[in-house]
């Protein structure tokens, strides 16, 4: 047959929808092309018990998710459950880079204050400047009379250190104590991958700048 090569026969083995599913799964952290194919096969073989419920959950979550206008957290309400919880202490704001860091700290149950999600760190290489982060919102929150301390819970990376120094300068005008996580966070370490005990020790051993 003319125009039919080995690639054409392979392409017809998998429909476009399945190829798209594999490609999107491969974008997830920890999933490469091979793992994505295995995950896709599992979903295909368990369409009623896994694929359909997962599709419904993804659609429902995508429709319901909101970014908290106060702290930048992502949940299904605005303000988020943390900011609207009367049992939280608004006097202490813990600044984190991303949502994953907030979840990691919450997992320890060692912090009862509120959070501020920056949305990243300063990075000259990636072209991320102060205007790309939620810095002005943090400064405005720190100016509130009830706020007494701002904890800079940033990753111990070069960009994290740079961002911490910048925030220290910006918050100098505010009448608040500025502290950072101390013992337990290794240089180059990321909060998302630390165990609960390490995070608890880092919170309790924070120091003033």
Please give a structural write-up.
By secondary structure, the chain is of the alpha/beta class. It has two domains: 59 residues, Orthogonal Bundle (Helicase, Ruva Protein, domain 3), CATH 1.10.8; 135 residues, Dna Topoisomerase Vi A Subunit, Chain: A, domain 2 (3-Layer(aba) Sandwich), CATH 3.40.1360.10. It contains eight helices and seven strands, in the order ααααβββαβαβαβαβ. The longest helix has 18 residues. The termini are far apart.
Q: Helix tally?
A: 8
Range of helix content? 40-55%
Identify the CATH architecture of the largest domain: 3-Layer(aba) Sandwich
Instruction: Return the CATH topology of the largest domain.
Output: Dna Topoisomerase Vi A Subunit, Chain: A, domain 2
CATH class of the largest domain: Alpha Beta
Count of extended strands: 7
The ordered string of helix (H) and strand (E) elements is HHHHEEEHEHEHEHE
Largest sheet: 5 strands, mixed
Q: Which structural category do the helix and sheet elements fall into?
A: alpha/beta
In spatial order, strands of the major sheet run 4-3-5-6-7
Portion of residues in beta strands equals 5-15%
Distance between the termini: 75 Å
If you average the pLDDT, what whole number results? 89
Q: In angstroms, what is the radius of gyration? A: 22 Å
Low-confidence stretches: 1-11
């Amino acid at each position: 047959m003319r125009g039919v090569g080995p690639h054409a026969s392979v392409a017809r083995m998998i429909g476009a929808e399945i190829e798209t599913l594999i490609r999107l799964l491969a974008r997830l952290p920890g999933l490469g092309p091979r793992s994505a194919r295995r995950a896709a096969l599992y979903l295909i073989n368990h369409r009623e018990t896994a694929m359909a419920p997962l599709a419904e959950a993804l659609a429902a979550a995508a429709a319901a998710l909101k970014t908290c206008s106060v702290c930048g957290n992502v949940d299904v309400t605005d303000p988020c459950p943390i900011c609207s919880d009367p049992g939280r202490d608004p006097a202490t704001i813990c600044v984190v880079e991303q949502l994953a860091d907030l979840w990691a700290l919450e997992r320890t149950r060692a912090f009862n204050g509120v959070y501020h999600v920056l949305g990243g760190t300063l990075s000259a290489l990636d072209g991320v400047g102060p205007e790309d982060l939620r810095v002005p919102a943090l400064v405005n929150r720190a100016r509130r009379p009830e706020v007494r301390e701002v904890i800079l819970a940033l990753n111990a990376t070069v960009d994290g250190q740079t961002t911490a120094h910048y925030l220290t300068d910006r918050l100098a005008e505010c009448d608040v104590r500025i502290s950072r996580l101390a013992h337990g966070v290794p240089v180059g370490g990321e909060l998302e991958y630390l165990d609960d005990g390490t995070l608890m020790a880092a919170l309790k051993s924070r120091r003033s700048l």
